Amino acid sequence: MTFTLVYSSLYAAYAQLGGCRHVQHLTLNQTTQATGINWLNQPFTVLAIATSKVSVALLILRLQGPCKWRAYLLYFLAASIWTYAAAIIVVVFTQCRPSYALWTEQEDSSCMQAEYFVYIGYSSAGYAAFQVLALAIIPMTFILKLQLSLHKRLSLCLVLGVGIFASACAIVKTTKLSEDGSLADFIWDTLPIFIWTANEVNIIIIGACIPAVYPLVSSYIEKHYASHGLG
After folding, report:
1. CA–CA distance, 59 with 209 (Å, rounded to integer)
2. Which ranges in the chain belong to alpha helices (H)?
3. Angstrom distance (rounded) from CA 56 to CA 79
4. pLDDT digits (tens, 9 = 90+) for 77-102
5. CA triplet 122, 128, 134: central angle to 5 degrees?
6. d(CA 116, CA 195)
7. I need a labelling partner for 228 at 20 to 30 A (CA). Which of 67, 76, 157, 217 fits?
8. C-alpha span between 145 and 116 (Å, rounded)
9. Could you tell me how far CA 139 lies from the centroid of its own chain?
């Protein structure tokens, strides 16, 4: 949640500088500052997604009971989430030397070929979508076996399966990546990626919070039905 607040604040500053507009409508100084915030904000975005996913994995680990294969799978997912997050942050700030050549022109700078960075983006975004989808499906493997009514089991699957929508956001975000790495209007062209990333993070956070709220909502619904003679 902390990382989400940080990147949201930076996005607000980004928009204030004109970060959501076409570059031809901005001054050179505005373009440089907005591009800098764009790149500097990416680690906080990556960490917000990673911490949200890991929190969901740990929640499932507590709920799933003693099952070794699910525990090992969840530990693997949590470790791979952090590994990918660290790798992405390193790649972002080492693709150019010096790093600030990402947002300011430097005569003696050298950068990774843009298409390589896009390939890395596709692979990381694709695996990120798989991670969220896995975290949405794993709970179903033990919820459907619980000694509860079918209605309650399906409700729990729906509650813990909210991550499917986050996975859909990750897939859409992947399609927004540039095919050739040449973002002529970088500030404007990255806007859809920011939007879908924010959707993904917020859905994961909601999914992580719903199980804690579910008993209260379920109790309210049961009392409501009982008071109206519908139970």
Report:
1. 10
2. 2-16, 28-63, 68-94, 114-137, 140-143, 150-160, 163-175, 186-189, 191-227
3. 13
4. 999 989 888 988 888 888 888 877 77
5. 135
6. 23
7. 157
8. 45
9. 19
